[in-house]
Structures are given as C-alpha cells and as structure tokens.
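tool_call: predict_structure(chain=1)
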Amino acid sequence: MKTLIAFNKPFNVVTQFSPHEKYQTLKDFIPLHKYMQFLFLRPHH
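tool_result:
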C-alpha cells in the first residue's frame, strides 16, 4: 500500500526536518517517525 502525505506548508515554516534556530520545520507538523519504517523497509520494484 502506498501512502501519500499532502501538506500545505504554513508561511515561515522551513522545508526541512532538521532543527532550525529561528523557524519551525516540517518536523513540527509531520510525525516522520511514523513513516520512517515504510521509507526504508519497503521492497524496491
């Protein structure tokens, strides 16, 4: 099964998952830890 994450990024949110000293990042909105297993364990076709 494929999962698509659709996200409308708010203004002043940095498009990265690593911390930023001034602004919020995608990590603050998207629980990436829930999806990491699917990114690395799914079979390649």
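agent: Residues 36-41 form the longest helix (6 residues). Proceeding to next step.
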